[in-house]
# Entry
Amino acid sequence: MSALKMFFCIVSDNGAVDVTVHRELNSIYTLWSNEKIFNKVGIIHIGFMRPKVPGYDEVEHFKESILVSSSVKWALPTEYRTSNTVVNNSKIPLYQLLSGFGYDIEIEDDLPVLENTVQETSFKAEGDHTIASAALEVLEATSQSMSKEEIYGHIIDRNLFSFGAKKPISVLNVELNRHCKDTDYSHSSSNKIFGKTSNGLFYALSAKKEFTGWLKVLQDENPSLESECLKLLIFDDKTYLEKRHELTDQVSRELDLIRFEQLKLSIDTEDPSQLIPILPIPILNAHISQLGLTVRTSNVFSIQDIFCLKDAIGIRLTDMLKWPNFGKKSAKDLCELLIASATKLTFQLPNPSSKNINLTEQENVINGLTSEYENQSGDYTFEHIKQVPLKQHFENSLALLSENARLVLEYRTGYKEPIKTLEEVGQLVGVTRERIRQIQKKNINKIIDTEYWDDCIAIKIGNLLIDRDQPLYLEMLEVEDDWFSGFIGNYQHLAAIIELFSENQIQLLTINGAVVISRISQDEWDSLISGFRKSLKAKAGEYRWTREDIKLIFKAELESKGAIELLSVLLDTFSGILQFNSENDVLIAYGKSSESAVFTVLQQAESPLHYSELADRASALLGKKVDVRTAHNSLAKLGAKLFGRGTYGLPKFNPISDLICNHIRTVVAKTLYEGPLAKQWHVTELLTYLKEKFPALPKDLDMYILNIILEDCVELTYLNKNVWARADSGQKPTDRVDMADAFTKILEDAGKPLKGKEIKARLEVVRGVHDSLQIQPTERMLQVGPDTWGLYERDINIDPKNITQYLDALHSYLKNEQKGIHVTEVEDFFDKINLGLELPESYTLLSLAQQDARFYLGRSMFLGLAEWGDDTRRYTNAQAVRKILDEMTEPMNINKINAKVHALTGIDTDTTVTGILKNEGAKYYKEQRLWFKE
# Structure
């Protein structure tokens, strides 16, 4: 059931209604005191759902006043006073607030209300309900048992009846009991329409349902158990599992056993994955040492970090059979033992989920960790726990866990290295990701149930958040409370501990790149920002909201969420977006230019973004389209840095510390100044040098981050396109050596064709070379052999007329075949056409074809027609492997895969496609020597 909420509705004469949710009357008073209340009426309501607010014309004569609903009237503190009579004529009865909130009003002819009586006003809901009929409608609609307070809340929420008594819930309780079956009330009604459960909840007798599933057997075989289920409205397996804890110990055990005996009739009783989930709860919760299992089976479970059978729920039989020493016979034997001993164990073992169970000290030791503070008072515990830092408490708890459980929590909290995913941990430990999730959940719950330091996390952070007016940043936590010390350099570890062990009482959210500790979640914060963006756009068009008004709105919303410390951050978030006039500081516009919107997005981004994403977010911020090109062109002057191909962010996203950045600048400058004065260095060349010399450099250091770092080095000059030079060389970007010109000059100086490797080596003398540099043909340079390059006018000695004939014949051939040709197939093409002319080299012919507008030269030296677009209509090896993996239904050996690749490409190859398989995510099973993609 949802919680009761206190709504404050402000009804304006223009028909607008603003509704806010509050935890206390003081925040409503603050909002109303700062509201321009002329021609407005305030309405306070307590209920489960947002109320149906009357129109301004219905309450106009109470302008500048506050009205309250029935649910509020009877809940107000004694210092508040309201009218006794309803002041409106709508379906929602309202009373005027006479004292409180600064009001002191006297009304003539205000009728008194008699103690403990029901005032049958004209404002009963449709159908003229009595108290009993209103309660019946609520219970029939919800089909569940409820307390008298819950029933009252629903009656008021749905306006089914207007109570006039000063203690309406007491009146309701009397009526419920008078109409209750088996009541002992002296003035009971003959019309019995309610039932009452053993724990005092009421339900509608008409809501009684037929038993379904295994509970059907109770009707004929066990009337007493049937009666126990009826009291709690248990009619099927779902409601049984939800309400089992409300049953007595004996009844829950008997029902558990009946459930087991009935459900096992419809499963494979030799499959543990089907049998275990239906076992009685005492058996599921018991330590495996209490179940009489064989030593072999117990050892298998221990190795898998399974200490009670409920930990095995969700593990498939196929996965179990992969466990060492656990085959089909072991699975069958386990099932037979559990079935044979089910009755005995159900009534002998503890029943932890029962409301009457009390575990002994011995059972606590068996089923979980023990705490040195177990028998101490709360004050004693807290005082002693805070003497030891959180990090040490966490390490002490890890030491009590099994080896596997300890490793899982270390990996998942980033104890010694970056946090690993469930999948990564599973690969390291040797189990599935789902098993890792189960181990993590079980052991975190174990620590929470048995230790006290996890409670101190919420207590201490909660104290820091009380009356706070500034955000609480994660990195500043140990400064504010040294109990959180010891996490410098590994704040992700601290964040993980807080998130996992505070049981959602404390939340971590990222704001402007910083991690902030609060009581609201990231989703709530993002929703808050999104909601204000929409509402502020609307308010900007009303020209009546001042800067102070906006601040009060922000403050009231954050107070209602218990996060007032984020007010300064919220104000900063919108400071560059909201435009106020200089005359009276009234909001006149939302958003600014496209450029400022892009800058705002850069400031608010949680990480570097692609320029298209920046444009999209800026568009959302401005409320109008921001052109992608405009966003891209504005980034440089806004101070954005390139973090990846098309990805930009502010310098604050540089993950390398200032100290390491300074060392990098020093080393790079020294390297360049030890080399030739005019040499130009490519950033990848510098990166390779740094990583070879300093293997311990952060993994985040790439060519983009290195460029950002070197921008602040006065001893270097940037020549654009990832090229650097010494500042004293006097070079400018226009002096940067052009790759195409450099290749041509190298070939000219060589006087003969060169291999690509040799060209790169000679280029390195004058400028840096990118590791993945690909040589491309130009107007003067072309490929004359495998990775061999030459000059058109020097190294091609064939008559141009002959080349034209070959290209014409090649065009006709491709037109006829309607598929591309590979360089290795050109010789066969020559044999087919037999022009009787001097033959060009195969690579030369395809390179010459690339300069002809009729052709398109694709990857892996496949030639197609330009009219086909970028498709040569042939599979490359990579494309063939991708298709084979997509269609793969069973593992294959490499010979079969090579054969399929050959069938798809039509090309003979001397090598296997092992490297391509790895790049495409295929898995290799060494024992079977097979490949498969999951």
Remarks:
- The longest helix spans residues 328-348.
- Residues 113-126, 353-380 have pLDDT under 50 and may be disordered.
